[in-house]
Amino acid sequence: MVEHIKTTTLWFLILLSVFLTYQIWTFQPEYAILKSTEYIDNTQIGLEKKLHEVIKPKQVILHEEGKSFASIDNSVFAQRFYEEYFGTPLEKFMIRPNLSPFHRINSDYKIEFIFPTSIPSEIFKDIYQMNHSDQLFISKIDRMVFALEKERDKEIVRVKLISNDERVIVEANTNIPVSRFIEDIALNSTNVFYEVFPFDIIDFGNGYRKTTYLPIEAMYLNSATYIAKPLPTDHFRQVLFSDPNFVKHYLQSNGEESFTDGNRMVNILQGGNILRYINPTFGDLVERNNKHVIFSALDFLNGHGGFTSSFYFDSLKTFGTSEEVTFRLFIGGLPVYSTNIFEVNNLFEITLHRGNGNQIEQYVRPMFIMDEEPINISKSTRLPSGKELIEALENKEEFERSLLTDINYGFTMIMRQSFVVLEPRWFIQYNGNWQVVHIAEEVDDSEAITNGLE
Which residue range forms the structural domain that includes residue 113? Predict the structure, then answer.
């Protein structure tokens, strides 16, 4: 009897084992819940951009038989010129020590690209997809000039790479067809560009000068209102910290917020409109590689899609072994230079700072994004002619000519809760800062801006 029970139990266990093994082999998990859950990617806030997409000229000037022309908003047509001519292969680079500075280049047809700041040669090489071993004979480039010249019995389009700081001009050949070059200038100078005259801002000596171009006649530009949408703080918390689960949140008495993991810190300032990221590194213990800071800044921003609007490379500053890169907001092809919130530039600038090491140590940016299309366009604002502008500056008692480093027109940004108003103004870069220029007939008492030269 006992043996019969043992045998029955053994067979039961064997059959149970076979059954369980079969269940494991044929098991099909239920995926319905997982499939119905939508995956949300929080790592990309805005866009990724390539180097050539964030470097653009401040001005594109067409020179035709003694006259000069510029695009009023430097956007559609100027951008087409920039993209078309910056894709041109260049060859046979040679330094021209006896070549006259640009304003004495003898040519009836020229296209001039003026950058907001000097472009390092290694950045220039990357834009042109050149071999970095190629010798450019120049370390930084202020402007480029494509000019029609005569070579023996034929005409050819050459390019001049100009460095006013170094007082050097490098020349290279292009394969641009002469007929197309002349047609581009003649067609656009009469249709979509306005006439300008040169104004020398800085004299570097030996005939080298920083020249900008001002309109002969007054210009009329529209003000516009845009919806401003806040960027989610949680997105930045997830991408700027290595492990967001260990991040602590602090709410300050003034309403500002802070996030930290004990090393990195993110501060949300100015009523939620500004983000300041701090990543302290021990740079003296890290050997810096040869990667240019502009590439480091671009990689950092692309790592989380930091280009949330039309930001373009604006300046590069060096403080000892530290470097700072700034990208400026452009709307409708025009730069934004000021705001009604006193000395808060990061409402329209993205600034990245690299110390002694290789990493970005500080990152400051706006925490809102503007719609692509305005919700309202106001009546045109009259911007005085270049002659009126110069006379207004020279008539100001406190104005010192030696402190003037640039002139341009653009927008001032007026923040109003969930939207911004952009108003066109003349600006000067004075004593290192962009300031709005008030000219009597230009000022609207209801929207007077308090900063700038009065």
Answer: 51-216
Which uninterrupted H or E stretch holds 426? strand 419-430
* 273 and 365 fall within a common domain: yes
Asked if residue 38 belongs to a domain, the reply is no
Residue 322 falls inside a structural domain: yes
**Mean pLDDT over residues 285-305, rounded?**
84
Residue 91 is encoded by which pair of tokens? 């060859």
Number of domains in the chain: 3
- How far apart, in whole angstroms, are the C-alpha atoms of residue 154 and residue 400? 48
- Co-location of 273 and 380 in the same domain: no
105 & 203 share domain: yes
Question: Do 310 and 331 form a contact (C-beta atoms < 8 A)?
Answer: yes
Residue that finishes a domain, picked among 313, 335, 370: 370
Residue 257 shares a structural domain with residue 328: yes
* Of the listed ranges 59-68, 200-209, 271-280, 319-328, the one predicted with least confidence: 200-209
At 362, which helix (H) or strand (E)?
strand 360-366
Look at residues 344, 370, 396 and tell me which one is the last residue of a structural domain: 370
| Nearest in space to 196 (alpha carbons), one of 254, 300, 112 | 112
Cβ–Cβ under 8 Å, residues 441 and 382:
yes
Long-range (24+ apart) CB contacts under 8 A made by 127-132 are 127/51, 127/52, 127/55, 127/86, 128/86, 128/89, 128/90, 130/90
* Arithmetic mean of pLDDT over the chain: 82
As separate numbers, helices (DSSP H) first and strands (DSSP E) second, the chain gives: 9, 24
Q: Name beta bridge partners: 421.
A: 225, 414
Among candidate residues 312, 304, 385, 397, the one with its CA nearest the CA of residue 348: 312
The string of pLDDT tens digits covering residues 165-220 is 888 889 888 888 999 888 888 877 666 688 999 999 988 877 788 899 999 999 99
* Consecutive H or E run containing 213: strand 208-215
Q: Which of 122-136, 149-163, 208-222, 343-357 has the lowest mean pLDDT?
A: 122-136
Question: Do 105 and 239 sit in the same domain of this protein?
Answer: no
Same domain, 84 and 111: yes
Q: What is the mean pLDDT of residues 227-236?
A: 91
